[in-house]
UniProtKB/TrEMBL annotation:
Keywords: ATP-binding, Kinase, Nucleotide-binding, Serine/threonine-protein kinase, Transferase. Signal peptide: none annotated. It holds the Pfam family Pkinase. GO terms for cellular component: plasma membrane. Residues 53-303 form the Protein kinase domain. The keyword Kinase applies. Belongs to the protein kinase superfamily. This is Protein kinase domain-containing protein. One of its GO terms (molecular function) is ATP binding. ATP binds at K88.
Length: 317
């Protein structure tokens, strides 16, 4: 069981290209316990001394710690990834606990082929740990130019499906970007990193623009001003970031704060006439006119149904 209480407040921390902001009036996990999906354990010592895992190289650095490749000591071929949220000071401990709490809450609430899954979570004296599946091709930010041309729309379709699933569950991801899309050996994507994700109750329809975190290159126009008086649709903010990802997949150009995404979608020779309308709809500057994640998913479902020659999509697995 998960005990939930209404959270009120705001806390920001920067690092790793993202900002963490706690939404007002969201639900958060007050008490975390093991679930049928994965165990949550309390350790008296270091993770690697208490459990049968061997520490490998650091694969990357996040907002509150490192991402490390680990292996089972008794099964060396079994590789996993450990996200280690380190307590460097009181402020970083508070940040780590918030991110850990929200990330596990999303894992508890979701079960979808397009989302990363937790294998094990642990509280250690000096840090918190989340163990997940290892994706050999890393993230899409690193592998964008390795992606086969014929699979780009398939990857976009899978990510769109995952985003729509989250939105149906009333979960806002808040940091959709290439670096948070992981690829297995067959280039099958999963959306991960739920530290900024939030479950919103049915009564929360808008959020103040200055309550959003995420990564600047993916920010929707309505949250760039950080105007506390402007109320925006949090799900439409996700859709804009999804549009930036789809644009990057189509053009093979990585996001940049100075890039005019709308203009790029309209003029790039790499954006086909079939793809252009959905890109313009996701990147619509006015969030009230911007499409929903459901409409993006329907676009890709229509591609499959109509066998669009411009937009090759891999068959269902």
């Amino acid at each position: 069981m998960i005990k939930e209480e209404a959270g009120v407040g705001r806390f920001e921390a920067s690092g790793g290209g993202a900002q963490f902001v706690m939404f007002m009036k969201v639900q958060y996990v007050a008490t975390l316990k093991s679930s049928s999906a994965f165990p949550l354990i309390n350790l008296k010592g270091d993770f690697f001394k208490e459990l049968p895992y061997t520490q490998g190289p650091v694969l990357g650095h996040g907002m509150s710690g490192d991402v490390i490749l680990i292996t089972r000591s008794d099964r060396p071929s079994e590789k996993r990834v450990l996200k280690r949220m380190v307590f460097k000071c009181r402020a970083s401990e508070r940040t780590a606990k918030m991110l850990f709490m929200y990330e596990l809450d999303t894992f508890y609430r979701t079960d979808h082929r397009g989302l990363a899954k937790c294998v094990l979570a642990a509280r250690c004296p000096d840090y918190l740990a989340i163990v997940m599946k290892f994706y050999p091709l890393g993230d899409l930010d690193r592998s964008l130019f390795l992606l086969p041309a014929g699979s780009r729309h398939w990857v976009a379709a899978r990510v769109s499906e995952a985003v729509e699933y989250l939105h149906m569950k009333r979960i806002v991801h808040s940091d959709i970007k290439l670096a948070n899309i992981l690829l297995d050996a067959g280039f099958t994507p999963v959306l991960g990193d739920f530290g900024l994700s939030r479950y919103l109750t049915e009564d929360v329809l808008t959020v103040a623009a200055n309550k959003f975190g995420g990564t600047r290159e993916y920010w929707a126009p309505e949250i760039r001003s950080r105007d506390a008086s402007q109320q925006v649709d949090p799900f439409k903010v996700d859709v804009y970031a999804l549009g930036v990802v789809i644009l990057s997949l189509a053009t093979q150009v990585k996001p940049h704060v100075d890039l005019d995404y709308q203009e790029c979608a309209k003029t790039s020779e790499h954006v086909t006439s079939h793809l252009r309308p959905i890109l313009e709809a996701t990147l619509e500057p006015d969030f009230k006119k911007r499409c929903t994640s459901d409409e993006v998913l329907k676009f890709y479902e229509d591609i499959v149904d109509n066998a669009c020659p411009e937009c090759e999509v891999a068959p269902e697995d």
